[in-house]
Amino acid sequence: MSAAATAAAAPPSRFVRLAAIPAMLGAGAMIAVQAQINGRLATDLGGTASAGLTAAVLAFGSGLLLVAVITLSTRARRAGIAGLRTAVRAGTVPKVALLGGLAGASLVAAQGLTVATIGVALFSVAVTAGQSSSSLAVDHAGLGPGGRVPWSPPRALAAACAVAAVGLTAGERLVESFSLTTAGLALLPLIAGAGMAVQAAFNGRVSAVAGPWVSSLNNFVVGFIGLVAVWAVAFVIDHDLDPLPHQWYLYLGGVLGLGFIWLSAALVRVHGVLVLGLCVIAGQVLGALVIELVISDDPHVGPVGVAAGGLTVVGVLVALWQSSHASQDAG
């Protein structure tokens, strides 16, 4: 058994469970910042669908280069790649679990295609709506590395808090400036958000046998291939792009994406897919609120949106309370 698999077999300590909470919240905030950066990059490249996909390819490509260098730099991590290959051949890790990167690619593509039009707040709302509704099902189906986590009233309540919160935020934004284009574009991050729960479960299973760096590398390789294939078609149809902008921070999307994917792969087994998803949702919604209120020239957040952010925190607390009791009962 590999070192990563041995570590995965031991139940997380109380300290690890507590330390995982701010880390999961931080992972969610990374998505909000990444959405802002990738949306701005897409706008500077021309604001078209081709520009949005180009921004996604640039972000995913930079993340791929970084994670490849980090993963291949040590013998232990290179051994993890071989261990993953062996686990796939033996059936310990199903082949479908290697495709989690496609969900990550769809999220980054949705950022480039929609954020400039619908804003970071509504983007985050749509993502979290999809994520919260699918996390409960993913845990119940046992897709994650921790096995099946059955449905329960507290877990359903926690997910309902997240859905209600994003519904309030979406309602405020759409009432303010409703259009069929805005509503239609919001479907893209909604679908991407639903895929994030599956991505976390699949990446967690890969991480359990090969470690989070190998899981992240696999995620970026698969996602990059999928993105380039879609980008190539879009570029043939419309290749009118503006020159690359000079602001260095617009190219940090890949670094933020790597941070989110690594943290998700490492932490999903600590509290399960639902709690991870809810913490990510809270971090993402609160991060988006800060971006809209502090950075955006035209903020789209009012009192309802702020209250919705607080409601996501309530959902996280309920889920953590239930998770803590379940852990004590198991012990």
From TrEMBL:
Q: What is this protein called?
A: Putative inner membrane protein
InterPro entries reported for this sequence: YdcZ
What Pfam families does the record tag this protein with?
DMT_YdcZ (PF04657)
GO cellular component term, pick one: plasma membrane
Species, as recorded? Nocardioides simplex (Arthrobacter simplex)
